[in-house]
User: Fold Cell envelope-related transcriptional attenuator domain-containing protein from Tengunoibacter tsumagoiensis.
Amino acid sequence: MNPPSGAAFPPVMNPPSGAAYPPVMNPPSGAAYPPVMNPPSGAAYPPVMNPPSGAAYFNQGYSQNPVYRNGPPSMSPPTGGRSPFKKPGRKRRFPIWARVLVAALALFIVISGSLYAYYQANYANSINNITGHQAVHHVNIETTDSHGNKQNQTTSNDILSGKRINILLLGSDNDGKGGNNGIGGSPLAQTDIVITIDPTTHYVGMLSIPRDLRVTIPGHGSGKMDFAFSYGFQLGGKDFTNSVTNGAGLAEDTIAYNFGIHIDYYAWVGLSGFVKVIDTAGGVDVDVIHPMVDDNYPDDVNKTGNTVYDYKRVYIAPGPQHLNGVQALEYVRTRHSDLVGDFGRSARQQQILSQLKTKLATPDTINKAPDLLKDLQDALKTDLTVSNMIAMGNFARSLDTNNIDRITLGPPTFASSIANTTDYAPICAPIRDQIAKMFDVQSKCIPQADASTGAAVAQVTNSQPNLALTTAPQAQASLATSLQAVTNETTERWQYVDPKEATHTILNLMLASVFGDITALE
Assistant:
């Protein structure tokens, strides 16, 4: 480094004149220098540590900073406390995936709650008003199978689990015929059909008991079969459902007492329900093969007469026809206007059944499912559950309809006219044989009158042998059994079922009851 041009060097500083230099300091006399410390013999000198060259000298610690023998002191905060130099951080947030999961769960709960509320409002109430209503029995009648074993009520939720079951299909007016409006009167059962199913062998039989067949009605003596439901209905008071369950119970008791057939389940349909369903669905289209004329059609729906047994004239023109509910019912029920008798009636029923099922499968009608169920709330009652009906529908689809046994206890084989009446008397010998074969039971038949003279048999009282009124202990046992059955049914009824499947299943049961045909359950 040369000084800048023109700059003068600082003057040479000489000691002041006359000043003496400091004296030379010699060691004291006799003092010895400290001994020279040589390393022990054989000890190696430590290696010479040369600092790194260049800027690395300062970067690697060879600076004027303090030197620590054991490294710099630790800067960790005291145990159990926060470092005074550390600022408090922000609260830790949930990860995004957790927030998304919580939001999705909340949305699912809201949607599920809405769907549940919709199901309860539009389906559940109607379904519960229709299903699970146990028949009420007032007498204790024992029946036995062909092996002498007592027949008991089926209690399994799987009704097709192996035991033979018998189901009573009841169809009646419920529109106020002759004061029999279901409130102040008592409807008559025009249809009493017992379906027997053996799940093991896939045997199915259908026994139709004519409404005019004279039978012994427990507690009421001899009368027409249609009055069994009517007498029981009167015991239910003004509660409609209770009246139906009492009517069904007495109808079951009458069948058990007269023919030895134990009934496991029942289904009752008011014919007005069929009319409402057809109208709600918008009617049905059929091709009428020939003119339908019936001057003896029972006037029991939207009636014009005032007595119990009013009749009216029915006429349906041939060709393509659009039928409303009343017309469709007349078309399938009329017995006196078909050129081929009951075969023609069965064909008409299948025709309406096919058209109605096609109509019920359309989107417009499916959307009316809540309305269809509401139509049936007071027109269809059963002790079956929806799952029972679904199981029966699946079973019906596996059947060969040509192998279903169908018997009607009417003239000339199974009944004969009673003089001076419109009643029929049972011909017991063939009835006992047929029932024993069809139901695998120890059948019986109660004679009612002499066909030639019309003389009625003696009135049957409650003290007649084989017919015991329910005593207190029996009533308690019956009540306990009924409560257990109701508990089982209630538990199942609260289970969620697909609304559309439930609607179709219930409609199929209605059709089976109206037509008296198990194949309607398919």
Remarks:
- DSSP finds 13 helices and 16 strands in the chain.
- The domain at 135-276+384-521 is CATH 3.30.420.590 (Nucleotidyltransferase; domain 5).
- The first strand starts at residue 139 and ends at 140.
- The radius of gyration is 49 Å.
